Amino acid sequence: MTFPANFLWGGATSANQIEGNYDVDGKGLSTADVVEYVKPEDRTNMEIPFPSSDEIKHALETESGRTFPKRFGIDFYHTYESDLALMKEMGFKTFRVSIAWARIFPTGVESEPNESGLKFYDRLFAEIRANGMEPLVTLSHYEMPLHLTLAYGGWLNRKLIDLFTHYAKTVFARYKDQVKYWLTFNEINSLLMAPYIGGGFTRDQVEDGKLLQAQYQAAHNQLVASAKATKACHEIVDGAKVGCMVIGMINYPQSTHPDDVFATHESMRNTFFFTDVHVRGKYPTYMKRFFRENKITIEKSPEDEEILQAGTVDFISLSYYMSGVAARQEVEGEHAAGNLLTGLKNPHLEESEWGWQIDPVGLRTLLNVFYERYEMPLFIVENGLGAVDHVTEDGRVHDSYRINYLQSHIEQMKEAIADGVDLWGYTTWGPIDLVSFSTSEMTKRYGFIYVDQDDYGRGSKKRLKKDSFYWYKQVIATNGEEL
Question: Which residues lie in coiled coils (predicted)?
Answer without folding.
Answer: none
